[in-house]
Design brief:
Elements: E1 5-15, E2 19-24, E3 27-40, E4 45-58, E5 63-74, E6 79-89, E7 97-104, H1 113-116, E8 119-125, E9 130-138
Antiparallel strand pairs: 1-3, 1-9, 2-3, 3-4, 4-5, 5-6, 6-7, 7-8, 8-9
Length: 139
Amino acid sequence: MNLNAEKVMSLHVELGEAREIGKTYEGLLTIIPIIGGTFEGPLLKGVVRAGGADWNTTISDTIAHVHAKYWIETDDHVVISVENEGFINLLRKEAVIRTTPRFMCDLRGRYAFLAMDTFVGELVGGSGNSVDITIYRLI
């Protein structure tokens, strides 16, 4: 099977101070606040709003789970909920984290396609306390 994808947006997400919760039944939990940022793509652009976070769980020496939930606001003031989840293979040399983002938005609005398609993401560390995420729509 061949999969084709088109770029939907790039996000630059600013992060707050990570807070280690400790060892839970799922692993070592660290919560990383999302404090802002920007995004841009061919069909939309705007800002990442403060108030979300990434719940990062180190399960073992070889795998970690990321689960971020936050919201973005387009330049035309439409609010979209984002939930982005994935696993990190800690043995892999590359620093790219692959994710499966999901969006919730008004199904009658101009960004309804975000709630109706399947997306994949690539997350890499940005400069300082930030990450850069590129989101693609499978076509």
